[in-house]
TrEMBL record:
It is found in: Cytoplasm. This is 3-hydroxyacyl-[acyl-carrier-protein] dehydratase FabZ. The lineage of its organism: Bacteria, Bacillati, Bacillota, Bacilli, Lactobacillales. Its EC number is 4.2.1.59. It comes from Ligilactobacillus pobuzihii. Involved in unsaturated fatty acids biosynthesis. Catalyzes the dehydration of short chain beta-hydroxyacyl-ACPs and long chain saturated and unsaturated beta-hydroxyacyl-ACPs. The active site is at residue 47. Keywords: Cytoplasm, Lipid A biosynthesis, Lipid biosynthesis, Lipid metabolism, Lyase. Belongs to the thioester dehydratase family. FabZ subfamily. Coiled coil: none annotated. InterPro entries: FabA_FabZ, FabZ, HotDog_dom_sf. Its main location: cytoplasm. GO terms for biological process: fatty acid biosynthetic process; lipid A biosynthetic process.
């Protein structure tokens, strides 16, 4: 999937759409996606001057966007909207810097009714930068959670 297909699926837009493309997708099972981290990212201006580092919250957001693509491509959730419900066991192990390629791997752990739980890993140069368990609530588009 390319940028336009991603934007057709999830509501995130520039400057907060963090998925550049989807490498692999098994609907309802797993996804591998890519974020090319560039010095032009707005958050590098203040985080941290002289030592540009991608904020941990934005790494989680990037994982959540890839996870929402996986969830919304699952047959039972097509045409709906996924909302991040919780983040558990987030661990940050490596800094993410300008020029890095962030590889996102998400596996569906559980699905029930309108809830999905995924296991996520973000890697840079085959090293784990971040891992977390994310829970999503899926609702009809336009419905309040």
């Amino acid at each position: 999937m390319g940028a336009q297909e991603i934007m057709d699926l999830i509501p995130n837009r520039y400057p907060i759409c963090y998925i550049d493309y989807v490498d692999e997708l098994e609907p309802g099972q797993r996804i591998v996606a890519t974020k090319n981290v560039t010095i032009n990212e707005s958050f590098f201006r203040g985080h941290f001057p002289g030592d540009p580092t991608m904020p941990g919250a934005l790494i989680i957001e990037t994982l959540a966007q890839a996870a929402s693509i996986l969830i919304l491509k699952s047959p039972e959730f097509v045409g709906k909207t996924a909302y991040l419900g919780s983040v558990r066991d987030a661990k940050f192990r490596e800094k993410v810097r300008p020029g890095d390629v962030l590889k996102l791997e998400i596996k569906m752990a559980k699905k029930r009714a309108n809830v999905g739980i995924v296991e996520t890993i973000a890697r840079v140069a085959n090293k784990v930068a971040c891992s977390a368990e994310l829970m999503f609530v899926v609702e009809e588009t336009g419905q309040k959670v």
